[in-house]
Design a protein that fits this description.
It is a single chain. This protein has 121 residues and is mainly alpha-helical. It has five helices and two strands, in the order ααααββα. Strands 1-2 form a two-stranded antiparallel sheet. The chain is elongated, with a radius of gyration of 19 Å.
Length: 121
């Protein structure tokens, strides 16, 4: 295995390790429905728990729990207006970027690993 490939592989694994906790959080079906509801809202100032609950068909308490997980992970944001909380996705300020970077690197790494395997045969 050459040094360049070893370094590429090491960097790829580091990217994966940064993305893994976020991918785990995003792996939950209810959270995916919540994210879809947030996306469908168009990000226009955010939406409230009740609106998300109607779109996701999940109980209000479950929505609140999953929103907290998404908030704590930095995947979504919240703004408060008096006693009302509005949830939204701010793509410039989200922790999903390592996941995007990881998936952008998958195809090139697959090709590189394939070439390295062929060299050993």
């Amino acid at each position: 295995m050459d040094k360049d490939f070893s370094l590429e592989k090491k960097n790829f694994i580091e990217t994966y390790n940064l993305a893994r906790p976020i991918m785990t959080i995003l792996g939950d079906q209810v959270r995916q429905e919540i994210l879809l509801a947030l996306i469908e809202s168009g990000g226009m100032g955010g939406i409230r728990v009740g609106e998300i609950q109607k779109k996701s068909h999940v109980s209000r308490s479950a929505v609140s729990h999953h929103l907290k997980v998404l908030l704590d992970a930095g995947i979504i944001n919240m703004r408060r207006e008096g006693t009302k909380n509005y949830y939204y996705i701010d793509f410039d300020d989200t922790t999903v970027k390592p996941v995007i970077l990881f998936w952008q690197q998958v195809e090139p790494m697959l090709k590189r690993c394939s070439k390295e395997s062929e060299k050993r045969l």
